[in-house]
From TrEMBL, chain A:
InterPro entries: AAA+_ATPase, ABC_Co_transporter, ABC_transporter-like_ATP-bd, ABC_transporter-like_CS, ABC_transpr_CbiO/EcfA_su, ECF_ABC_transporter_ATP-bd, P-loop_NTPase. This is Putative ABC transporter ATP-binding protein CPE1583. It holds the Pfam family ABC_tran. It comes from Caldibacillus thermoamylovorans. The keyword ATP-binding applies. Its EC number is 3.6.3.-. Belongs to the ABC transporter superfamily.
Automatic annotation (TrEMBL), chain B:
The lineage of its organism: Bacteria, Bacillati, Bacillota, Bacilli, Bacillales. The keyword Transport does not apply. InterPro entries: ECF_substrate-spec-like (IPR009825), UPF0397 (IPR022914). Belongs to the UPF0397 family. It is a multi-pass membrane protein. It comes from the Bacteria. This is UPF0397 protein B4167_1961. Keywords: Cell membrane, Membrane, Transmembrane, Transmembrane helix. Gene3D superfamilies: 1.10.1760.20. The keyword Cytoplasm does not apply. GO terms for cellular component: plasma membrane.
From TrEMBL, chain C:
This is Cobalt ABC transporter. The chain crosses the membrane at residues 20-36, 42-57, 64-85, 114-136, 247-266. It comes from the Bacteria. It is found in: Membrane. It holds the Pfam family CbiQ. Its main location: membrane. The gene is cbiQ. It comes from Caldibacillus thermoamylovorans.
């Protein structure tokens, strides 16, 4: 008989600050040594479940609890947060928030320090755990010299050092580039097998988590558990579609081709999935899809000509980068963390001045123009909307830039209202921004840039931290702006985004441009993928597995079909 | 906030508050054109933090933030002024309970209270404490340090009065519980 | 403007080998001595001693040149200000007035004034190196442990560590926010006129502050989840045990402080008067 480690029984929870309960009648048992994935759209309550398990509820977030939750057989309400933290180790989403020590060793030792562990013991334990997460060689490294993936591994070591029984991961993939995310999932798997800990992962990027085996998937929506089953069973239902969780792309392709997925085909694990079954169906679908090739307009709007830049004289962050963006294009700039993507965008907007090279906008050399001058042509939307919002009301926030430019009041009103309508924010115009969701805030920041009427906008990770529904909302909105003539440059490490929404992508690696091609082609080139920390798409593998001679064409058709479907769906 | 031991949240507020104090103190002060007197926006931030997190946090953010700023950027600690930062931070925090900014309400009455206290606190700090410490520690000439204190004090009072009030108002608004908003 | 920060410089020297706590205690003792005394002889001795300690620490001039220049410029301006405000301060202190150069009345340059200003300069020059040396020879990871060891509560000591940890993050956020707001026409940099800058400051401050408050929530949750504040005490991964040289250094500096106080105050005045 398996031993239950987490048991929710008729559990309800309501935050003090909210009217409606966030969790309703949760019944869930997780057994020792299991690996469970909790999925659900934002606001579904999946993070709240996590907070209940690690004790932040009720110790940090106050609210009303009904029913029972047992952790390792003990009623959670009888425990304090410290005893819970001895049993449940949590790896949070934001690696910078969780990494509180100045160096790797120090951060891993944090829990031991708080326990008054003698120093020699601490040093030994830290060494052992660091080796498990491949950070043994970096014990003295400063937090400021680590990548996002390394920080996350340190966070993991920092909870493992306490010999916890349960490891809880709250959106572990949110801040990682694709290859690093893949590595993280592999590492979690390996550690679970070695230590027989129970692993609970909360994440909405389903396909990425399923890179390694998962025992059960729990689907949460609107505070309730909709499904609690084995992944193979889950994929033979339409629950995921209903709650708007992105299914693995290979399964989506098969569904497009009219294939019926059943659990005995083992759809959850791509390496075992019997894709051959659908060979004929896929081929037939492939023949039917038409590609309407639009001749690309080729009037350049932005040109970078041999641009180089370094924050310090000794170290160059961007070397000799040249590319051209044409009017009306939507292009991705991709590459691993630290490849120079953000720096390029800062150079384009004039936040930094290149050491060498030229930046040309609509035929004019703007290399020496100030930020303010360039802001009339180029707008920049930062990744974190909270970094841009300084007003209380939506209207005022969007109007801010116009007010600063001394635009007459009547014109401000007109332009702001117009922009709010375009952005779907008009009904909310008199709302305080603090009442908006993360995705809506993002829209406000986009609106606050659009209102200045730039010809090109640059968005840094426009979909970071958003679930599939919000992701689709934002991207469809950007597509529409693009169709209306706005040129858009996206900085991202989201492969889906690049593949589905931007025909062309520029790949950076260590400050150099290593590719500038169709997104489909880039994601089919193993060498490029490796160099830029990207990840191959399962569509490509599906095509190869089912015997397509030109997998790239297959992927292209899938994207075209998918776009068509979205357009009709709207 | 917590009398006996500081809560974890207060500790973190002190740490992050000190970090922000350092950065604002170094990069966000605006010179007025008169030597040695800048618009130190960082004191508006200090006032906000002290009102949110209480006198102990206010005092420690002033102390740690100012000492670290001096240490990291100038390699030397100007003790007399560090003490004043701690002192005004602490005094700002004394009205934390009375203002109860978490209630989301920061009306005219509270704005007046806040400004009376901040002007009083800074008058004591900059007009009296700073010059006296400068004389005691560094034996600087009396007339010089009092005039200096007067200049810095007045400009900081104005800064906290305008920017501090603005920030507190904005913060209070983010605390408003939004129950029944309707689309129009 | 130099945007550089002083930080730990990794070298092998007897100064580096002392524990952070020792250096902190010595730094405090030294600062106390230098702040209390106004005796020219002691100031001179301390000044020369600090040069020797600097030499021993293997910190080179060019490592700290940018702050040094800043400090020297500051000293110059301060000296001019003192002369402008109080040209007869020296006469007041030392009781005599040997006029060297005649300007208009109260601005006559006296030997006493020059000597007084030399003292002030010397004083700053002895107070400054201690802090400078402390910051460049102490690993930041050792800061908190050191503060805790000399009696500061570990909670407050950890707040200092957090500040050091997040200063670069806050600096990065500040830059991004300021630039992004500038691109919307809200500039608080020196390109704008004074009043506009002040007005625009809130557009930069508000996002920085609100996102920092958010950070506080996340970090305190993370710390709580890892048992911070559970016990009355805590141990430190990076603490170093005291050794003989640490005790020696501390005893030496205590003696230095006592000697300074004795010599300075034995005649009832902080000032050494060569004129009487």
């Amino acid at each position: 008989m398996k031993k239950p480690v987490i048991e929710f029984q008729n559990y309800h929870f309501k935050y003090d600050s909210q009217k409606q309960p966030t969790l309703k009648n949760i019944n869930l048992t997780i057994y020792e040594g299991e690996k469970v994935l909790i999925v659900g759209p934002s606001g579904s309550g999946k993070s709240t479940i996590g907070h209940c398990i690690n004790g932040l509820i009720p110790f940090s977030y106050k609210g009303e609890i009904q029913g029972s939750l047992k952790i390792m057989g003990k009623e959670a309400s009888d425990l304090d947060i410290f005893s819970i933290s001895k049993m449940v180790g949590t790896v949070l989403q934001d690696p910078d928030g969780q990494f509180i020590g100045l160096s790797v060793g120090e951060d891993i030792a944090f829990a031991l320090e708080n326990d008054c562990t003698p120093q020699p013991e601490m040093v030994k334990a830290v060494k052992e755990v660091a080796a498990m997460v491949d950070m043994g060689a970096f014990l003295d490294a400063s937090v400021h010299h680590l990548s996002g993936g390394q920080k996350q591994r340190v966070s993991l070591a920092g909870v493992m050092v306490d010999n916890v029984n349960i490891l809880l991961f709250d959106e572990p993939l949110a801040n990682l580039d694709p290859a690093t995310g893949k590595h993280a999932i592999h590492l979690i798997d390996q550690i679970q097998k070695e230590t027989n800990t129970t692993v609970v992962i909360i994440e909405h990027r389903l396909e990425d988590v399923l890179y390694r085996h998962v025992d059960r998937i729990i689907v949460v929506d609107d505070g309730e558990i909709l499904a609690d089953q084995n992944p193979n069973e889950l994929f033979s239902t339409d629950i995921l579609e209903k709650v708007k969780i992105r299914e693995p792309l290979y399964l989506k392709a098969i569904k497009y081709a009219g294939g019926a997925i059943t659990k005995d085909l083992e759809p959850a694990d791509f390496s075992r999935f019997r894709a051959e079954t659908f060979r004929e169906q896929l081929r037939k679908w492939y023949e039917e899809v038409t590609l309407n090739e639009e001749p690309p307009e080729a009037e350049p709007i932005l040109e970078l000509n041999r641009v180089s830049f370094g924050y310090t004289p000794k170290k160059e962050t961007v070397h000799d980068v040249s590319f051209t963006i044409n009017k009306g294009e939507m292009v991705s700039i991709v590459g691993k963390n630290g490849a120079g993507k953000s720096t390029i965008s800062k150079l384009i907007c004039g936040f930094e001045t290149p050491n060498a090279g030229k930046i040309i906008f609509s035929g004019q050399d703007i290399t020496n123009e100030s930020i303010t001058e360039r802001s009339l042509k180029i707008g920049m939307v930062l990744q974190n909307p909270n970094h841009m919002i300084s007003k209380h009301m939506i209207f005022d926030e969007v109007a801010l830039g116009l007010v600063a430019r001394g635009v007459p009041e009547a014109e401000i009103r007109e332009r702001v209202e117009e922009t709010l309508k375009i952005c779907g924010l008009y009904p909310f115009r008199n709302w305080p921004i603090s009442a908006l969701s993360f995705g809506q805030k993002k829209r406000v920041t986009i609106a606050s840039i659009l209102v200045l009427q730039p010809e090109l906008i640059i968005l840094d990770e426009p979909t970071a931290g958003q679930d599939f529904r919000h992701y689709t909302d934002i991207m469809e909105f950007l597509m529409e702006l693009n169709r209306n003539g706005l040129t858009i440059l996206l900085i991202t490490h989201d492969m889906h985004l690049m593949l589905e929404y931007t025909d062309r992508a520029i790949v950076l690696c260590d400050g150099r441009k290593i590719a500038d091609d169709q997104s489909v082609r880039i994601l089919s080139d193993p060498q490029l993928i490796e160099q830029a920390n990207l990840k191959e798409t399962s569509l490509f593998e599906l095509a190869t597995k089912t015997g397509f001679t030109d997998p790239i064409k297959f992927v292209e058709r899938f994207i075209a079909y998918d776009r068509e479907g979205r357009n009709h769906g709207k | 906030m917590n009398k006996n031991t500081l809560s974890v949240r207060t500790i973190v507020a002190i740490g992050i508050g000190a970090a922000v104090f350092v950065i604002l103190g170094r990069f966000a002060s605006i010179p007025t054109g008169i030597p040695n007197s800048n618009i130190e926006v960082t004191y508006a931030f200090l006032a906000l933090m002290a009102v949110i997190f209480g006198p102990v946090a206010g005092g420690l953010i002033g102390l740690i933030g100012h000492a670290l700023k001096d240490l990291i950027f100038y390699g030397s600690i100007w003790w007399s002024w560090v003490v004043v930062s701690m002192f005004v931070g602490f005094l700002f925090g004394l009205i934390s309970k009375k203002l109860d900014i978490e209630s989301g309400e920061f009306g005219r009455q509270k704005i007046i209270t806040f400004n009376l206290v901040q002007v009083g606190a800074q008058a004591l700090g900059w007009f009296l404490l700073a010059p006296v410490l400068d004389i005691v520690i560094y034996a600087e000439p009396t007339s010089k340090v009092f005039i200096q204190g007067l200049g810095v004090g007045i400009s900081n009072m104005v800064t906290v009065g305008i920017l501090g009030t603005l920030l507190l108002t904005l913060y209070a608004k983010t605390r408003t519980k939004t129950g029944s908003l309707d689309r129009e | 403007m130099a945007n550089e920060m002083l930080s730990y410089i990794d070298r092998t020297s007897p100064i580096h080998r002392l524990t952070g706590a020792t250096k902190l205690v010595c730094f405090i003792l030294w600062s106390t001595a230098a702040m209390l005394t106004y005796d020219t002889r002691i100031l001179l001795f301390l000044f020369i001693a600090s040069l020797v300690i600097f030499y021993v620490s293997k910190i080179r001039l060019r490592d700290i040149l940018f702050v040094l220049i800043f400090i020297l410029v500051f000293l110059l301006i301060n000296n001019i200000a003192i002369y402008l405000f109080s040209p007869q301060e020296g006469v007041k202190i030392y009781g005599t007035g040997h006029v060297l150069v005649e300007f208009a009345g109260r601005y006559n340059m006296t030997l006493e004034q020059l000597f007084y200003q030399l003292n002030i300069t010397l004083k700053y020059l002895t107070v400054i190196p201690a802090a400078l040396l402390f910051i460049v020879t102490t690993h930041p990871s050792e800061f908190a442990a050191s503060l805790n060891r000399i009696g500061v509560s570990y909670r407050i000591a950890y707040a200092v560590s957090l500040a050091l940890r997040y200063i670069p993050d806050v600096q990065r956020d500040f830059r991004n926010i300021a630039k992004a707001q500038q691109a919307r026409g809200l500039d608080m940099s020196k390109n704008e006129k004074f009043l506009k800058r002040v007005k625009n400051a809130s557009a930069v401050l508000a996002p920085l502050i609100l996102s920092s408050l958010e950070k506080i929530e996340i970090i305190s949750n993370a710390m709580e989840l890892r048992g911070f504040g559970k016990k009355k005490k805590r141990t430190w991964y990076n603490a170093r045990p005291f050794q003989k040289r640490d005790y020696t250094a501390i005893i030496l500096f205590v003696l230095l402080l006592i000697a300074t106080l004795l010599i300075t105050y034995h005649d009832g005045s902080r000032f050494y008067n060569p004129f009487s």
